[in-house]
């Protein structure tokens, strides 16, 4: 494996963190043909360790059964919005309930390979839960700097698996350079492996996330026409694009998909860069979305490059549309996802209306995490039911209650 600069193809020493020391570009792993060609014969299944030939680590990966998540064909939503072949990649089925488990497994292995004293990361929630769990599996201490105000369920996950968690004021508000500098200095002081899941700081961890594309290509089979992902920092979308490029290089697929990035209109750094034709993504002075996971004021230019190279697009959705689609996914498809996981599906009507996807294409939406991660859906209804007087243990009383509820629902419509 070589480590190259994605801007000018400089080669740097393996293990280099941060940006290219020559030109400031984002670094990326590059594998020899004999490694990439193995993708044609690897059998699917749980554990990203099966793909170790195209991962940047030789140490055994402490698997918890991550990956091999379901690719579910839409039963109702696809038809209702006008798509004939809509699929959901259900990343909430990973061990801690989100796609970041693929990153967490690789982060723990990289820390073991580096003989680090522990692992350091910063997170708004899902990365904290994942990295803490995989550090526990690997027997490594874990220190998490947490964005204040994240969903409590994600904080509980990190604490339950033994991480030391420090809420830090304005952790992401000072911009990517400031947080990257702080993390690199703190990791060096502690001799902890810096497992921040963002390629401009750690260019290796997103390699675990690219295994999503391997699984989709096997299960579909072949590449979809369009892959729609929520984007905060941009690693999920970029990682999949690299995975599809490797699959094509290895002869597994014949064509590449278009990568569609979805951001909240209330935190749209990548969207603004795409709209204006900019070469880089500027940090915005605000991030006001209520969608945990994509409420960040900065994205990486690696995501911008992935969209453009794939002839894809960046679109924005309102928070209200995302929450509405989260409820529809649960009621119409039986899929309870965290709000950010509903963002790609919320973008479908506008994508169709503007001709950016078409009815007959095979479209995959990435549902990034499980509903318990940010569990406000049906919260009021659950509280109301729990406080209601129980119905007597009698057939007629139960029937009367069912009828009463149905009448109330019909009247509400």
Describe this structure in words.
With 413 residues, the protein is of the alpha/beta class. Among the domains are: 71-97 and 206-374, 3-Layer(aba) Sandwich (Rossmann fold), CATH 3.40.50; 384-412, no CATH class. It is 39% helix and 15% strand. The strands form three sheets. Strands 4-5-13-10-11-12 form a six-stranded mixed sheet, with helices on both faces. α9 (235-249) links the parallel β10 and β11. α8 packs across α9 and α12 packs across α13 (339-346). It is globular and about 75 Å long. The mean pLDDT is 94.
List the helices and strands and how they pair.
Elements: E1 2-5, E2 11-12, E3 27-30, H1 33-36, E4 71-73, H2 77-81, E5 85-90, H3 100-113, E6 118-123, H4 126-138, E7 142-147, H5 152-160, E8 164-168, H6 176-190, E9 192-194, H7 206-209, H8 211-219, E10 226-230, H9 235-249, E11 258-264, H10 269-276, H11 301-309, E12 313-317, H12 319-333, H13 339-346, H14 348-353, E13 362-367, H15 379-387, H16 395-412
Parallel strand pairs: 5-13, 6-7, 6-9, 7-8, 10-11, 10-13, 11-12
Antiparallel strand pairs: 1-2, 1-3, 4-5
């Amino acid at each position: 494996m070589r480590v190259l600069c994605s801007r000018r193809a400089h080669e740097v020493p393996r293990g280099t963190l941060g940006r290219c020391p020559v030109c400031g570009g984002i670094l990326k792993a590059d594998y020899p043909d004999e490694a990439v060609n193995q993708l044609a014969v690897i059998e699917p299944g749980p554990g990203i360790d099966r793909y170790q030939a195209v991962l940047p680590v030789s140490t055994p990966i402490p698997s918890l059964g991550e990956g091999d998540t379901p690719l579910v064909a839409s039963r109702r939503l696809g038809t209702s919005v006008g798509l004939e072949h809509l699929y959901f990649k259900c990343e909430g089925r990973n061990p801690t309930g989100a796609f970041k488990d693929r990153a967490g497994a690789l982060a723990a292995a990289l820390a073991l390979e580096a003989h680090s004293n522990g692992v350091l990361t910063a997170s708004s929630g899902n990365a904290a839960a994942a990295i803490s769990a995989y550090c526990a599996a690997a027997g490594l201490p874990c220190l998490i700097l947490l964005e204040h105000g994240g969903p409590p369920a994600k904080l509980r996950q990190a604490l339950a698996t033994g991480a030391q968690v420090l809420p830090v004021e304005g952790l992401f508000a000072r911009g990517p350079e400031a947080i990257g500098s702080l993390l690199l200095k703190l990791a060096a002081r502690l001799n902890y492996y810096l497992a921040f899941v963002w390629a401009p700081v750690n260019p290796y961890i997103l390699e675990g996330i690219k295994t999503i594309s391997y699984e989709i290509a096997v299960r579909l089979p072949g590449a979809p026409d369009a892959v729609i992902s929520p984007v905060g920092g941009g690693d999920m979308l970029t990682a999949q694009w690299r995975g599809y490029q490797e699959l094509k290089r290895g002869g597994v697929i014949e064509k590449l998909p278009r990568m569609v990035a979805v951001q909240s209109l209330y935190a749209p750094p990548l969207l603004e860069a795409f709209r204006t034709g900019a070469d880089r993504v500027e940090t915005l002075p605000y991030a006001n979305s209520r969608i945990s996971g994509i409420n960040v004021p900065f994205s990486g230019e690696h995501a911008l490059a992935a969209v453009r190279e794939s002839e894809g697009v960046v679109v924005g959705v309102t928070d209200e549309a995302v929450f509405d689609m989260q409820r529809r996914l649960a009621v119409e498809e039986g899929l309870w996802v965290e709000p950010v996981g509903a963002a790609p599906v919320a973008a479908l009507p506008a994508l169709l209306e503007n001709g950016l996807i078409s009815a007959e294409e095979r479209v995959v939406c990435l549902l990034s995490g499980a509903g318990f991660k940010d569990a406000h859906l049906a919260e009021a209804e659950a509280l109301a039911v729990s406080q209601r007087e129980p119905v007597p243990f009698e057939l007629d009383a139960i029937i009367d209650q069912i009828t009463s509820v149905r009448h109330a629902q019909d009247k509400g419509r």
